[in-house]
Known about the structure:
248 residues, alpha/beta, two-stranded antiparallel ribbon, 39% helix, 17% strand
Amino acid sequence: MSDYYVGAVARGGVWLAVAYTDEGYDHAAVLDGVGELWARYEETAERVAVDVPIGLESTTAPRPNEAAAVELLGERREALIPAPVREAARKQRYRAAARVHERKTGRGLSQAAFERAHVIASVDEFMTTIDEARPVFVEALPELCYRAFAGEPLSYAPAVAAGYAERMRILAGFDRDAPPTVQSVAEATEGHAVPIPAVLDGVALGLTMRPGPGDLRSLPADPPTDENGLPMQYVYRSETPLTAGETA
């Protein structure tokens, strides 16, 4: 069996995995958690890109990759939701998480960041427990992947029609088979309330992982690691680096 290159996004309490091989799109699957994602692809995936933070700060914010990406996203910088520090991500209530985050970093914690805290904490626990997953799982920001494919920042949010059209156009420009792939992935979510933007993002992350035009790159190019040795980076694919200081 060919190795899989997987893009996986966590939305609405489930994970959507989009799997490619060297030959192209292979399949999509809706999974219940990061543990099920690992169980599904542990033996077959060359690389899995997830849209959930890998590597958390303990006393500072934002993370280095988040700070670097903000400079590249233009009007779409609001798509980036900085992660809570590790202790805050494990709190069950927003007020407690916000207090911890502010005490540790001197910065406020957004409600949107807290709403993803549960899945962030689950991925963090998974990555610090399962050593075998470290060479396989990487973090990717969908908005940055589109930015790398397009060569310029996006203009519209994914929830509006213009944003859908913009992302479809970018995906089709990068891979001519992307439009039918999006349709196939959407059909594979039958029975699950997966948002339309998640389907596009899963395809974008899958294409980023699959060998294709350009090189797989890291932002920052030489990512620092957190206290558990996890790199704080976003991966993306492009012909040239997105930042002047980056190397191929």
